[in-house]
Every structure is written in C-alpha cells, then in structure tokens.
Amino acid sequence: MAKISINIASGSIEKPKIVVGIDLGTTNSLVAYVPKGQGQSQIIPIRGNGIVPSVVHFDAHDVPAVGVYAKDKLLGQPERTIYSVKRLLGKNYGDIPLNTLDIGYRIIDDSSENMVKVQVGSRFYNPIELSAEILKELKQQAEVSLGVLVEQAVITVPAYFNESQRQATRDAGKLAGLDVLRIINEPTAASLAYGIQEQSQGHVLVYDLGGGTFDVSVLQIEDGVFEVLSTHGDTYLGGDDIDRRIAEYWREQTSQEANEKTPFAELRIWAEKAKIELSNNKNAVFEYVFESGMKVYLDYAVLVKIANPILEKTWNSVKKALKDAQLTPADIQEVVLVGGSTRFPEIQEQLTQWFAESRINNQINPDEVVALGAAIEADVLAGNRSDVLLLDVTPLSLGIETAGGLMDVLIPRNSKIPVRVGREYTTSVDGQVNLKVSVFQGERELVAENRQLGSFILEGIPSMPAGMPKIEIQFALNADGMLQVQAKELRSGVVQKVEIQPSYGLTDAQVEEMLLSGLTNAKTDVEERLLRESQNEARQIIYTTERFIEKNANLLSNEEKAGTEQRIETVRGLIDNGDRHVLQTAIENLNDFSRPFAERLMDIAVSKALKGNRIDQMK
Ligand code: AMP
C-alpha cells in the first residue's frame, strides 16, 4: 500500500520521496535505500525478492515483463526474451563480438544506426529502451514495496564504462522516469558498503567475479575521497565459464551415446548446481542421474582443478591492475569481494595468499554489496550525511583539434572530476569569422588517431587580423563524466555552448586499446607532433610574410622583395618534405632575412604614430 499523506491545510498531496541506489547488473539488478534515521542501507524487496533478473520478455502483444517471470521464458521463447542488455549498452553493431554472445534474440545489423538494435517480432528496441524497462520495474516495484515515490536514483556502472556507456545508462534512467543524480563506479560503491571511506587513507582492491564478467579495480582513498587508480578485467569471464567447463568435463567422462541424449544446456544447469553445492560444502560429493540415464559426479578437488584456469586469468588481471596503479600486493590494505562467484572458497583462499597483509572484506552478501553502497551515496546526495565524498577520474584525455590535426589536450586522462578547464586560442587567417571546434577523446598526439566526440562552429567572430581574436575554449566535465564545451570570443563576447552527447559505440577493449596505443606510440607521436608544429609554423610565416610584402611593397627594395619571395618558396617547397629539421632551418633563414627590414618598417610605423597617426590607420 502506498503511503501518501494529504496536507489538510492546502489540500495538496505530499508524497514522501527517497533517493535509491541501483545496481543495474548484466545478470541481476538490485535496489537499496537507507531508511530515514538509520545509517545502514537495505535491499528493497521487489516482488518478494531482493534480486531481479535483468531480463526483459515481450509477449505476443509486445507487452514487456521484467524479472523472474521474464527469465522463465528464456528457454521457451528465447527470441522474445532479452538478457545481458548491459553488454550492448552504448555500443554499435561493429563493437559487439556476436560469436561470444550466447544469445537467442536478434541483433540488427544496421550500420546506418549508431546504436545496436534488438528485433523482437516486428518491433525494434535499442539497449537504452531495454535497460529502461528494467529500471521501470525496479522503480515501480520499489514504490510498491516501500509505499513512497522513487524519483531519484544513483546508478552504478563498471569503472571502465566510457562516456557513451555512462550516458546511455543515464538516458535509460531518464526514460524510466528517474532523475539520475549520479552515476558511480561499482567498485567504489562496494567499498562504500564496507565503510572503507572511514579510513583516512589507503588502497583498496575490488575483485568482482560474477556470472559472466570479471573486473578488478584499484582504488585510493584519502580523507574519504575515492579515486580509481586502475581497472582491468574481462567482459567475457565468470562463473558461467566454470559451469561450462564442468559440463564439458562430464561429457568427456561419459559415453557418446549418453552424451547425445543429454542436452548441453541441461548439463550446464546441473553443473552450476554442483558448483554451488560443493562451494558451500567442500566435503560433499555431487552425484546426479539425468533422464537420459547419464550419471555425473563431482568433488571439490576436481572442481578446483576445473576452475583453476579461469582463476588464473583473473590473477593475471589483478597483476596488471596493480602494475598500472604502480603498487604491489603489500600496498593494498583492503580487498573487497563482489559478485556471486567470490563465494567459491578457493577464490578467497588464493586471495588470502596473494594479499597476506590485507583485510579481506567478504562479510556482506557479494550480490548485494554494490547496491548497498550505491544507497549510501544516494543518502549523501539526499542531504542526509556528509561523511562521504566520491571522486572519480576520466579514463581518457579530452581535447580539441588545433591546426595541422594536432590534439590539444585540455583535460588529461586520470584527471579528477568534476573539473573545469579553459584555454585561449586565436585565429590563423585574417578576417576569420567562424571557428570550428572539434572535440576528441584519446591519448594520441594526432586527432586522426583519437575518437571524435563532437564538433560545433563558433560563428560571428568580428573580422580581425589573424591572431587578434581571443577565443576561450572551456571544458567542464561533471561528476557523471558529461562534457560541456563552451567557446567564447572574449573581445566581442560571442559565445557558443554545447553539451557533448558522445556518439555511442566505444567498447571496453577499444578504451584499453586507445590507452595502450597512446603509450606504445608515444615516441613516434612526439616526432609527428613536432613535424606538424613546424609545418603549421611554416604555413603561418608564409601567410604573414606575404601579407606584409603586399601591404608594404612601396617601402621595400626589389632585392628585399625578391630575396623574401625566394625564401618563401623554399619554405613552401619543404612543408611536405617530412624533415622537420630542414624545414625549421628554412623558416629561420626566412626569418633572419626579413627581420632587418621588418624592424625598419616597424620603426617608421612607430615614429609616424608618435606624430599623431594611429597605428591601425597606416598602410
Ligand atoms: P552475479 O553475476 O554476481 O549474480 O554472480 C552469479 C554467479 O555466481 C553465477 O555464476 C553463480 O553460479 C555464481 N555463484 C553463486 N553462488 C555461488 C557459490 N556459492 N559458489 C560459487 N559460485 C556461486
């Protein structure tokens, strides 16, 4: 029953509101909140369960259903039942490794669309709409459960989610009727649930092994401020792989005939049951006889042997995350366990060996820990507490294109957000009245190697000589990773502002690749940048010198004119030669030749000005 109180004096309806924390997971989703006056967060039951399968089913009339009921339709109507939609969020068709996605529904191959679409019958849905269906169910059922309105939320995302994916999550929230106050990183939320922010400083490693994904993040906390130092993982690794390997092991142990009669999907279901049973009781022996007559066995020692290659992959990621954060296991004070698969005792044992000095935080239900932490941040944003301050960093650098296709970084990667940065630019051509601002993301020196986020044109710059306009470009990146770009000509006040809606479609692997490629190409990039800078300088000097000769033709000797023109041609001929040093020498040569008479003309100009003429009136 919804508790809605009526204000008798005004007759208006006062609807109590709360801010919730939502863990919008690949497999399951959860909602949590902090009851008024209590510091502790709680999971909100949804139709009697805490966990809601992140599955959307459309019936024959295209009416959606979410959760347990939808999951039950997976076997019977796979083409109308959508799961793992989080893997599609913020991506385009080319980004999705379809061969690794074990799905029964149809993804549309339509390269004209930025974002991938799912076809169900004659209808098409994008991942934002599908995620919104899940969020709608969570919102509505949380309202039913608590009897209050749920209009504001904090939603968690993996730390490696790029801006497109964060924006897509935010859009899904909006579509579900939620005001998304903040998007926070899952590992940060998990640390909050353990109250780790109360430590004044330290390092936390969050190990998150779910059904289908693995993430490891290294966080730094300082005075309640969280910063993600590094993340690593595998978007296609998890408990499901252990189940598959158990099923394969059973197949190897059985005759071909029995194998043929037992569907693999059924073997996998029982493999998971075996894994969980042995995980909960190491001394048990799992036995099962299928309808086909196939008999299977499993004990804990064999389970560990089967799971080890998967665990090995996670340790490799842990090593990489530590290396990226420039830390060793001894630097980690707290290890936080997230994801259902971390209940497997072998993981906890191996982690204890790895992080002998650290505290292993495994007391909170690993399925609930992210939502419980998100609720704490929600409580902070609701104004109920002030002991937590979250801080995230940008995963990739943000900048604009400058002359010669160079990337001018305004916000470097790993900058703490929110952040606001401004830098002044000018025009390169006389009388230039428009300036195109192209915004890029990435680590390479040349924009062509980075990813364009958007572009716009600052129009109406008053006509002035090149170099005179003062154009300030300002980047404001908010706490959710949304970028606002403003260009302002400071002399005239002409201004243009855009919110960058990052074009959808950058995979986690691409983000990683962009980072890596930035590192491995650093040396050649610097050379390339220096060459481009020399080329820009050459074009600029040719332009200004030619204008200068044109304006002052009557004050120069023929020798001076011819000598200058000849040197201009030399510089022009060397621009595309590719040798920066030779080009630079030619530029200096031109400069040295023209400097004496440029100075002479300047003296004349100054003395004329002193006689009462304004400099800008002189030819
Ligand atoms: P999540 O994606 O976080 O919901 O985790 C789901 C995964 O956790 C599935 O692969 C489950 O089989 C696995 N899981 C749940 N309970 C256990 C357990 N006790 N031992 C090992 N794996 C488990």
How far the N terminus sits from the C terminus, by CA atoms, comes to 84 Å
Q: Which CATH C-level class of the domain at 16-200 and 364-388 is it?
A: Alpha Beta
What low-confidence regions span 5 or more consecutive residues with pLDDT below 50? 1-15, 502-506, 609-619
Mean pLDDT: 85
Gyration radius from CA atoms, angstroms: 31 Å
| Approximate strand percentage | 25-35%
- Biggest β-sheet description: 6 strands, mixed
What is the CATH topology classification name of the domain at 16-200 and 364-388?
Answer: Nucleotidyltransferase, domain 5
**What name goes with the CATH superfamily of the domain at 16-200 and 364-388?**
ATPase, nucleotide binding domain
| Oligomer description | single chain
Give me the secondary-structure category: alpha+beta
Query: Helix amount, in percent?
Result: 25-40%
